[in-house]
Amino acid sequence: MADSVYRVTEVIGTSSESWEAAARGAVETAAKSVRDLRVAEVIKADLTIENGKISSYRVRLGISFKYESGD
Q: Could you say which DSSP state residue 34 is in?
C-alpha cells in the first residue's frame, strides 16, 4: 500500500429530524463537491430548543479526504 496524505475539514449538518439525518445531509452535501471522502468523525452534537421542544439537531463532523497523488 502506497503512502497517502489526507486532509480533514469540518462541516456542520442540521436537521429537524435527528442527529443521524443531520450527519447524513452533511456527508451527502460534501460529497457533491469533494471527491474521495474517507471517514467522518462526530466532533460535536447539539440541538436547539424552542418552546420547550427540540426544533433542530446539529452535528459538527471532521471529514477526511485523500489528496490525489498525481500518479
A: S
Domains held by the chain: number: 1
Tabulate helix, strand, coil % of the chain (nearest 5): 20, 55, 30
Range of the domain at 27: 6-66
Contact 27, 40 (CB under 8 A): yes
pLDDT digits (tens, 9 = 90+) for 4-36: 888 999 999 999 999 999 999 999 999 999 888
φ, ψ of residue 33 in degrees (nearest 5) = -125, -10
Label residue 55 exposed, middle or buried (CB < 10 Å: 0-12, 13-18, 19+): exposed
Q: Which residues of 20-47 are buried (b: 16+ CB within 10 A; e: fewer)?
A: eebbbbbbeebeeeeeeeeebeeeeeee
3-class state of residue 1 by DSSP: coil
